[in-house]
Every structure is written in structure tokens, then in C-alpha cells.
Design a protein that fits this description.
The chain is mainly α and 138 residues long. It is built from eight helices and two strands; from the N terminus they run ααααααββαα. A hairpin with a 7-residue loop joins strand 1 and strand 2.
Length: 138
């Protein structure tokens, strides 16, 4: 899997500017060095993933979002709720939920049936995801 550091840099810069944070303040809040944050925003490949992960909280993203951006996904924004102080809420992308539901259904089908072709298993999982959506479960 290739990591797209320039894509991450674009998303981080855009979000930091939306929040009107300086690089120095963002780095300080994340608990990483100013130079490390600058390397992330420059698209440098030699930044520890543990440092990259620390930008999530500063930018208001769900944990794992920055790493997800490296891998081609979009960051998942979080918001705080007045009903439960200290609790953050994030909405997972529909594509993630659909993909995970299909994976679970396919694995369950393989584990519990025999003689189905891969196309039949794929069709079964697609139909199950459609039915779950129609029922409002996903």
C-alpha cells in the first residue's frame, strides 16, 4: 500500500487554516515538535506514524483519520455534544459501513455454507447490505 503524504499535507493545511491555528500552536497542542508539524505539512515521508496520529485531536478528526488520509480515505470530523460533555461524536462514511458489512457477510457465508461460487457469495452480501439499508439498520 502506498502512502500519499502530499494528500495528507493538503488536508492538514486546509483544516488547520479553517481552525485559524498557527503551525506553532497546532504543534504545541498536539504535543509534537514544530519541525515535525512542518514536515507533515510539507508532505515529507519521514514522519513517524505516531506523530501523524497526534494531529487528529488538534484538527477535530476522529482517531485514525490522519493515517486514513495517508491510505486514501477522507478524515472523519468529530463534534462534541451538549447532552454528554466530554463525548465526541463522529459519523463513519457510508462506504466504510457498506464495505465492512459486505466483508462480514461474505466471511459468515464462507464459514457456514459450501458449494457457493464467489459470485454467488458477492451477490448474497450485496443483497443483504441492500436489505439492511432498507430496514434502516445501516
Amino acid at each position: 500500500m502506498t502512502e500519499d503524504h502530499s494528500r495528507l499535507a493538503e488536508r492538514v493545511i486546509t483544516r488547520r487554516e479553517e481552525l485559524a491555528l498557527s503551525i506553532r500552536r497546532a504543534a504545541q497542542t498536539a504535543g509534537i515538535a514544530y519541525d515535525t508539524w512542518r514536515r507533515i505539512e510539507s508532505g515529507a515521508k519521514k514522519v513517524h506514524r505516531s506523530s501523524i496520529a497526534k494531529v487528529d485531536a488538534v484538527l477535530g478528526w476522529a482517531p485514525g483519520s490522519a493515517i486514513g488520509v495517508l491510505e486514501g480515505r477522507e478524515p472523519i470530523p468529530i463534534r462534541q455534544t451538549a447532552e454528554a460533555p466530554g463525548v465526541d461524536i463522529s459519523r463513519r462514511p457510508v462506504e466504510d459501513i457498506d464495505r465492512e458489512a459486505r466483508d462480514v457477510i461474505q466471511l459468515a457465508t464462507v464459514a457456514t455454507t459450501s458449494g457457493l461460487t464467489s459470485d454467488e457469495i458477492r451477490d448474497l452480501s450485496d443483497r443483504a447490505v441492500r436489505d439492511l439499508k432498507a430496514a434502516g439498520l445501516i
